[in-house]
Amino acid sequence: xxxxxxxxxxxxxxxxxxxxxxxxxxxxxxxxxxxxxxxxxxxxxxxxxxxxxxxxxxxxxxxxxxxxxxxxxxxxxxxxxxxxxxxxxxxxxxxxxxxxxxxxxxxxxxxxxxxxxxxxxxxxxxxxxxxxxxxxxxxxxxxxxxxxxxxxxxxxxxxxxxxxxxxxxxxxxxxxxxxxxxxxxxxxxxxxxxxxxxxxxxxxxxxxxxxxxxxxxxxxxxxxxxxxxxxxxxxxxxxxxxxxxxxxxxxxxxxxxxxxxxxxxxxxxxxxxxxxxxxxxxxxxxxxxxxxxxxxxxxxxxxxxxxxx
Length: 309
Ligand code: PMV
Known about the structure:
The protein is of the alpha+beta class. The chain has helices at 65-78, 101-116, 123-138, 144-149, 185-198, 200-222, 226-242, 248-259, 283-295, and strands at residues 2-14, 25-41, 47-50, 53-56, 85-91, 155-157, 164-165, 173-178, 264-268, 275-280, 300-305. The strands form two sheets. Strands 1, 2, 3, 4, 5, 6 and 7 form a seven-stranded mixed beta sheet that branches. Strands 9-10-8-11 form a four-stranded antiparallel beta sheet. Helix 1 runs parallel beside helix 2 (101-116), helix 2 (101-116) crosses helix 3 and helix 6 (200-222) packs antiparallel against helix 7 (226-242).
């Protein structure tokens, strides 16, 4: 007996961090990276096999607390004991790089367990369980990563409000580049919280402007104005840098993309490492930007077509 569950990575186009403060974010599913969890029948104690750990579930390390907790909570919901199966998690989403790997691991594993025990999983239940894992991984998550794990389409997301799916109607390519440096979402989120206590006015103004740029970016996407979208991305990156969540590697890659053909470039996700994104007018340009990013130190790049040429 065997069952699987999958989930995609995601890319935040605009609105990371400001989304925690009630401003909107725009994010897209990123199927170029994904996670697959497989549950197999065995006899005896549950085993866990993933990138960070292979061994008995009961001895999994502290860094996997979000995963082990969500497994326990899912079994509680399913009213099943923790025995007689193995869990294997295979991922092509680089961990801690702002691509939502923690939420995707949770979602893929919850889906696999529900499939294995042949129970129907509602979106509400998936989101409730994924959120438990995200709270452990991120402390004070906006819910955006959780929402993205059950979405096939781009989302306009405001914390605590109904999620609005929309079409990526922009003729452009997105180049995603990994700095190779582990991002620090939790620390970055906490540092903005501290900054807003020390310099409330400046921080609130920056967060508010990030929200405005996100709304403008959504209109630029809907009205197929890639050049304007690029401008909004650049402005967002400057503000995120001002808020202290960029770093040297991200700024170097942003500069390299802009020095090539990029219409705009910014960090994506929690920052302080992780990934950045650059907007390209066409595929040739995207290829050139990707090559420039690799030359400037990116450890990996992905090219994603956003709409029609
Ligand atoms: O680093 P990621 O992909 O988990 O994205 C975090 C996004 C933040 O806005 C920084 C935090 C949040 O909870 O929305």
